[in-house]
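Sharing a chain and its predicted structure for anyone who wants a worked example. Both blocks are below, sequence first, tokens second.
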Amino acid sequence: MSIEISCAENKARSVLMNAGNVMVSVSGGADSDCMIDLLYRINAELSEKNVGANIFFVFFDTGLEYKATKEHLNYLEQRYNIKIDRVKAYKSIPYAIKKYGVPFWSKRVSESIERLQKHNFDFKNAKGKRWESLWEQYPNSKAAIRWLCSDFPHPATNASYVHGLYDYLCDNPPQFAISAKCCEYAKKKTSKQYAKEHNIDMICTGIRRAEGGTRATAYKSCFDRDDEIANFRPLFWLSNNDRIEYENKYGIIHSICYTKYGLKRTGCVGCPFARNFEEEIAIIKKYEPELYIACMNIFEKSYNYRREFLNYRKLLTFI
């Protein structure tokens, strides 16, 4: 067994010892499967010594979920003899998008565009102008304008970080509302509400640093604290090879989303943030056609806007 797996088990053992009420966020994904197995085994061992945690396994239903994921939850309950609470979203993805807008490209991009749209920002007349002059016209959108004009010192916090985005937005302003609030209301607020209602002391998630992306890079370690609640990421330091070794050692069986559909992720279904969204929606269309129709009704404007942007970027390379 790798040193990283042994360390993960030892860390989980020390964290779960007398941890109180612990919420384990179950997603139905591959990392989540390994996390459940790890925490269940370690806590069962500790419980025999009367020092284990009181674990709540929780699945937050966003209102847009694979049937395969829901079936996998049943399997997990049977395998580990546990109960997984199915909790409806504070505001479902379909409702949040209808009310606030559709996500586009990334969370940072969506949040910045949303702020500009809120103040009826004129993208076409903004091209080439410095952020100071735009701020005089839109005094309540300073941060979003600095983002658009790439005035922040850190490259990743500017629109220029996404090649061609500034020109595209100015030349082709979105004709629909853009927002990332579906992320906030479907999962984050739902999780906080559950934690409050059940007096949760610690929240466990299956984030691994090796998976990359905004979620993983937002954290520097496996443990931190938010107000009165601790956050523990039991698999944080495991590499992709470590996870494979863990799966083989403990006989982890994943959802058919992976084994049959061929999906690489089972996050928010059909999310336009995904780089391989075309491949994902093609898979959804093949295996869960009703869900595909729902995704198109909800995300189609964003899909099309992203496709147009990608074509626009190709043209930029020839100018």
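Comments welcome. The longest helix spans residues 289-316.
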